[in-house]
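User: Just a sanity check before I run the rest of the batch. Below are the structure tokens for the first item. I only need the designed sequence back.
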């Protein structure tokens, strides 16, 4: 049966209904006094956004909604009146020795004749004069009409008493299962508020993006997933309490509500979002309510852009008022006393705000989103009980700022009532420094920086200096640098920054260890979720009839069509697929030539690769076959054919493997009824075949299309775009819109995971050498005009491309793409592939978009960052990203200047990436192979602690560092003549260039003398040693000179052995 009822829960909660009925002397249940029966009638499903109380009670008892169903509580029995399909489900309640008797009456279908079930139910009830119900609910449907007619004809139309308030009281106190669902709903609401609404708002303000309140609301709504789209786990995974949430049971109670100065402020719940654009000034209100398994949670926050002192004071008062009401909202307090306490507190602290205060401070919550019987208003005398859930809402409306603009403030949280006080279940994004944004006036800051002394902060805006909270977010052209690197540039904060990073890194490492244990907890005893290699079957021919005719001659035949070698064995033609053959060798000996065919078999060493897997390694294998012939020319030809066929088979296998992750995209749906939005005169990378000519990009219904000048086209669907970037042409020659794909597509003959549309920012119409327009003009005026024109042209290009990227994001619909812009002020240099490039962080990634091959590293996919070759004396270090998916190859970024080490550390810490550092390069290929063999055991043994601690943990003593160095490379070159070779094979993993550059630059600085001078110094020191009688010892200790290349070692050897230590550190 698809629907399973919780029978025990039903009887437990039904017993609460009867218990409350018998306790009618209590104030909250007084409406139940003197009733002969209670009826809960549910008709056709309504279009109401909020849940009706009858449906809420039905869901509370049965766990599901049952439309067109009547439930009647008699004094000692429960009756149901419903259709036959619902009766099959309700029969689960008829268990032996049931605590409460159940009887079900089935409504007859229209074709079955008169319906006697309502009459039979009325007769079973007997005499009923006062009937409890919900008369204010407008129910419709055949069952409603039939039951009302039966009440009038057979029960004499009894008096129907409204019991809505009593039902609300019955469901108000939540049991443990209900509280668990409410907490989950609260975590969902808080996470969407903190990690999406607040962060997205900050991004919009920072970039001055134009977006309507309605579009903003839809983007938030899409994060929960809908219409077959999965929830965005990049957001939900940030809350550890949501690890085991069933997202199919989560839904929005109503669409998120965003309000700003342009839309006006409406503090009622479920206000409609406006289509007006979001204001970038003033106050922004955000409300989110999510329901989980029927139970709702609600959270509202107020955000400020350049707030005044008055607004800061009022907001601080709102927070203090909420804290005051939390202590008042406890077991035994009446609802009106809570509101009266709020009014009293306002009159005492800020009496001028009383007229702006809302008419209530919240309401009861549960399965029914808003229980009006528990409204925290001045007239409600109902008592609050421990275990109840409320939406505590503090709001002030119709406030005016210094410019006469109207604004409002609202802070709402879902709270649980306790014996002593209430506690908030929703949390986060409420402190002053989390909700206040300050724009940075770049022009003013630049002009002031010239006059200010060098010790003052040049990046801190004037508005921020007035704010008491130094942690407030600065929104402007340098928001991230201010947040991560210059928060307190007026003071020396290096020590506090180091301590903060150290503490934060400890938390991140502990979290990674706990997450790893949770992630692989179910993999115990298996291969860690990684599939092992399996033997692939090959079939050359389906039968003897398919063998080629050439085999009749009983000679070795190479069948290229079927990728097979047919050889004679004891008078039989035996085929071998080319993949079973390892190689072929030929040997001329005397007048005969020997052809040896070697086959794949277990136990063979294949270099660094694992042995080929076999279906049955214990079987008997043919290792090789050898043939002898006097026809040397024929055997030469056979050896050549087999070798070429083997190369061809290997090439096909590699191509097939390379294209394994390429997806077949769906068809692009062209936009109809109007012309598509276009971006003309752009080039594409990777380039199409043919002459390099510009094309245009079009935005369609489900993707974008690039049309080349030669008729070629590239289609990219929104569903396949993982990241969308816009890179302005500031200090660059290109302006770019870049698409990083989820799965690669084929462009030309190659697969590509990155597609880029760009235009060159240089102006070819003007000749910089003095021809054409410039040859008749002279002086600085000409150069100034050209610079101004260049600046305007770049601004126009940036505006055009950014607008087009935003149009792509808007057209993406349910995919909710966001335009990510690199932060140039956070860039650092490095070598991710073969050349030195500038790497730029974005909100979600680390990118290099200007020079192919492109680099896009998604920050949320990074498990840990390892900083290597970090030691005194080296001018460069390496950064390695290890991904959450351990099967992916770690990403190396080599040769990063050491002067940028602190900046890289602070950035990594700010984006929640754990890091570790060490003095040498590690062999990550071998490390990841070991981890993949048993990930669970790896995390049980401490996980990433083997890397030697966090990058922030630089407080180790010098002896610790020397111990670490000696552990890896404590032996000199004399003791290990081939140490460089062994280290390259053991530790080096693609970082040769970085080590060569680092060590080379160091040698250049140390060796100031030429070769002749160094030779003279060396000879002089030898003579002096012989005169003192220690020539034999010094000669035996010094490595033998092989040539002039060793001269730097001698020259750098002065200084009592410092050079050898430095060489060890550099290796």
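Assistant: Here's the designed sequence for the first item:
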């Amino acid at each position: 049966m698809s629907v399973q009822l919780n029978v025990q829960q039903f009887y437990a909660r039904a017993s609460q209904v009867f218990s409350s009925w018998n306790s009618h002397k209590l104030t909250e249940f007084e409406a139940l006094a003197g009733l002969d029966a209670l009826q809960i009638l549910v008709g056709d499903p309504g279009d109401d956004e909020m849940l009706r109380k009858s449906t809420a009670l039905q869901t509370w008892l049965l766990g599901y909604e049952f439309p067109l169903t009547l439930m009647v509580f008699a004094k000692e029995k429960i009756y149901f009146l419903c259709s036959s399909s619902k009766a099959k489900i309700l029969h689960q309640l008829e268990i032996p020795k049931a605590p409460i008797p159940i009887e079900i009456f089935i409504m007859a279908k229209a074709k079955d004749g008169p319906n006697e079930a309502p009459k039979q139910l009325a007769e079973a009830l007997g005499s009923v004069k006062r009937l409890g119900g919900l008369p204010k609910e407008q129910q419709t449907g055949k069952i409603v009409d039939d039951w009302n007619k039966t009440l009038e004809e057979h029960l004499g139309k009894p008096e129907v008493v409204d019991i809505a308030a009593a039902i609300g009281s019955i469901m108000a106190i939540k049991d443990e299962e209900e509280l668990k669902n409410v907490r989950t709903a609260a975590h969902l609401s808080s996470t969407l508020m903190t990690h999406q609404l607040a962060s997205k708002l900050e991004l919009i303000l920072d970039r001055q993006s134009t977006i309507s309140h309605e579009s903003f609301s839809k983007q938030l709504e899409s994060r929960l997933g809908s219409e077959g789209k999965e929830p965005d786990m990049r957001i939900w995974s940030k809350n550890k309490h949501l690890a085991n949430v069933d997202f199919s049971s989560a839904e929005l109670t109503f669409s998120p509500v965003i309000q700003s100065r342009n839309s006006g402020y409406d503090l009622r719940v479920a206000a409609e979002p406006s289509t007006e654009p979001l204001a970038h000034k003033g106050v922004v209100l955000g409300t989110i309510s999510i329901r989980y398994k029927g139970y709702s949670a609600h959270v509202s926050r107020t955000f400020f852009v350049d707030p005044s002192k008055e607004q800061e004071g009022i907001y601080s008062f709102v927070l203090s008022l909420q804290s005051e009401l939390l202590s008042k909202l406890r077991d035994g307090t009446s609802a009106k006393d809570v509101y009266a306490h709020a009014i009293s507190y306002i009159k005492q602290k800020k009496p001028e705000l009383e007229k702006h205060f809302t008419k209530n401070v919240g309401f009861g919550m549960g399965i029914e989103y808003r229980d009006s019987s528990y409204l925290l208003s001045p007239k409600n005398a109902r008592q609050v009980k421990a275990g109840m859930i409320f939406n505590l809402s503090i709001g002030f409306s119709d406030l005016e700022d210094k410019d006469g603009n109207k604004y409002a403030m609202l802070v709402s949280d879902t709270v649980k009532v306790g014996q002593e006080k209430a506690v908030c279940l929703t949390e986060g994004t409420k402190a002053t420094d989390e909700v206040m944004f300050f724009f940075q006036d770049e022009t003013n800051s630049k002009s002031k920086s010239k006059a200010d002394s060098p010790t003052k902060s040049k990046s801190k805006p004037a508005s921020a200096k007035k704010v008491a909270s130094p942690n407030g977010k600065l929104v402007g052209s340098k928001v991230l640098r201010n947040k991560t690197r210059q928060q307190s540039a007026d003071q020396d904060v290096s020590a506090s920054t180091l301590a903060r990073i150290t503490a934060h890194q400890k938390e991140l490492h502990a979290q990674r260890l706990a997450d790893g244990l949770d992630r692989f907890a179910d993999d115990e005893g298996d291969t860690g979720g990684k599939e092992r290699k399996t033997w692939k079957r090959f079939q050359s021919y389906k039968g003897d009839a398919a063998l080629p005719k050439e085999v009749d001659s009983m000679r070795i035949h190479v069948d290229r069509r079927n990728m097979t070698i047919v050889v004679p064995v004891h008078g039989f033609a035996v085929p071998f697929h080319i993949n079973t053959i390892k190689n072929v060798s030929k040997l001329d000996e005397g007048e005969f030539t020997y052809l040896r065919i070697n086959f794949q078999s277990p136990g063979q060493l294949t270099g660094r690769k694992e042995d080929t897997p076999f279906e049955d390694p214990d079987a008997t294998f043919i290792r090789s076959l050898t043939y002898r012939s006097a026809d040397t020319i024929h055997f030469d030809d056979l050896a050549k054919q087999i070798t070429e066929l083997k190369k061809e088979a290997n090439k096909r296998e590699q191509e097939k493997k390379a294209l394994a992750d390429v997806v077949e995209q769906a068809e692009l749906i062209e936009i109809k009824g109007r012309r598509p939005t276009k971006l003309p005169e752009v080039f594409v990378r990777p380039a199409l075949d043919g002459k390099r000519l510009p094309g245009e990009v079009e935005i369609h219904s489900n993707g974008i299309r690039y049309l080349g000048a030669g008729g070629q086209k590239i289609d990219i669907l929104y569903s396949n775009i993982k990241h969308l970037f816009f890179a302005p042409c500031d200090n660059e020659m290109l302006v770019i819109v870049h698409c990083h794909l989820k799965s690669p597509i084929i462009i030309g003959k190659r697969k590509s995971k990155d597609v880029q549309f760009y235009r060159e920012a240089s102006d070819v119409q003007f000749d910089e050498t003095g021809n054409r327009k410039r040859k008749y003009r002279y002086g600085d005026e000409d150069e100034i005009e050209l610079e101004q024109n260049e600046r305007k042209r770049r601004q126009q290009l940036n505006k055009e491309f950014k607008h087009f990227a935003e149009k792509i994001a808007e057209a993406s619909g349910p995919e909710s793409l966001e335009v990510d812009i690199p932060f140039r002020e956070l860039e650092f240099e490095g070598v991710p592939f073969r050349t030195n490039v500038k790497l730029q962080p974005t909100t979600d990634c680390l990118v290099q978009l200007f020079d192919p091959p492109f680099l896009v590293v998604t920050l949320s996919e990074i498990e840990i960052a390892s900083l290597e070759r970090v030691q005194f004396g080296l001018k460069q270090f390496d950064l390695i990203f290890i991904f959450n998916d351990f099967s992916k190859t770690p990403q190396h970024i080599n040769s990063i200047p050491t002067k940028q080490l602190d900046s890289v550390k602070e950035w990594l810490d700010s984006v929640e990436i754990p890091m570790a550092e060490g003095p040498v390069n590690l062999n990550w290929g071998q490390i990841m192979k070991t981890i993949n063999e048993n990930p669970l055991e790896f995390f049980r043994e401490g996980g990433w602690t083997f890397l030697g601690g966090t990058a922030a943990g630089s407080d180790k003593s010098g002896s610790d560092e020397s111990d670490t160095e000696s552990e890896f490379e404590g032996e000199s070159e004399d003791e290990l003549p081939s140490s460089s070779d062994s280290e390259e094979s053991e530790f080096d993993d693609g970082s040769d260039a970085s080590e060569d550059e680092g060590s080379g630059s160091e040698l250049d600085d140390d060796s100031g003398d030429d070769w002749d001078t160094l030779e003279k110094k060396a000879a002089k020191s030898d003579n002096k040693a012989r005169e003192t009688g220690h020539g034999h010892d010094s000669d035996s200790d010094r490595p033998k000179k092989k040539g002039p290349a060793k001269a730097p070692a001698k020259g750098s050897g002065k200084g009592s052995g410092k050079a050898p230590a430095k060489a060890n550190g550099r290796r």
